[in-house]
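retry 2 of 3: previous attempt timed out while embedding zinc ion. Reduced batch size to 1 and resubmitted. Inputs unchanged:
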Amino acid sequence: MHDKVALVYTDQYGRYDFGPDHPLRPLRLKLTYDLMEKLNLLSHKRLEIKEPIEATQEQIERAHDPEYVEVVKKLSANPGDRIIQPYLYGLGPGDNPIFRGMYEASALVCGASIVAADLVWKNDDIIIGFNPAGGLHHAQKKRASGFCIFNDIAVAIHHLKHLKKDIKIAYLDIDCHHGDGVQWLFYDDPNVLTVSFHESGKFLFPGTGHTNEVGEGPGKGFSLNFPLLPGTNNRMLVKLFRYCVPRILDAYSPDLLFTQLGVDMHFNDPLTQMGASISAYKNIAQTLYTCSHDYCNNKWVAVGGGGYLMTVVPRAWSVFLARMLDVELRNELPNDWIEQVKKEVPNEDTPYLLWDHDDKSEVELLSHPEITKKMIDYNKELKNLCDNEYLPNISQK
Ligand SMILES: [Zn+2]
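retry 2 succeeded.
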């Protein structure tokens, strides 16, 4: 059988923990794994569960500055180190607080993305590798940013480039925040196409991802950005995605598809202002599954990403895994998972359905037809940009 899916998972992911008051809680990964298990996805005959190992310092330094890597290592061993000025490296109180063991925890996330990439690249019978702990797309060459210490995506992409020098990778990022770290790390590289759908940087961290960020030098034309308006709903998002993504991947024709599957475009996400529901992710999963097969050599490496509702992330990623396995799930949740969520996430409304089709922003937009029209026109502009500028650039080679 040439259709295996590898889920890279360990309960050691819980070590990547910025503390109880931080929005990126390890609990979301545990609840994800538990839901996948209770939906019988983990016992599926096509699924293999693989344990990650820590990335080596050499592997991390392919993407990061050695001085920065040393700083993380030192602070990880001794968080109170007075000689280092952590804020110079994006570390410290706020988004990226220092914690003991953060080097090893971050290296493990990188290692897990490497394992996912390795399995897909080296084994013809594994078509998809999924590391839900990965997706730390904001980390930059010399600094941490936006909850991301090391950029596991860039480390895994460099690993693939190490295996095959001229490999062509299409990186697609659907996190609500712009995939800035990955974009800048491969900004001049035509062999890594970066595509990001996100809430416009005019309204949201990190403030980048505008349509004029197209790459530089030989990489000019190989960074594509789709900045979306706040409140963009399922229908608009899916329509744009389904139109642009297959065309982009068809035109670029990569050796491998690498996706960051942040699910913080959800309408209730506390950090963002978008209008998508889990139904949109169901649609997106279908498009990616088909595109990976049709245009990307049937090789798909998927990592997680943002998403700050403990009741949403597990459902959305289970929907993705179900699609990867060709399993049609019913729109219901296992009772024991509902009970678990009631206990472990008392501050969020308990969900009873796997995917919410109630689209709050759909209703809001209906009562504001002038805003709806503006948004539809804006998305048409993005579609035109894709047709007239993005696609001709990437089709040249
Ligand atoms: Zn995000």
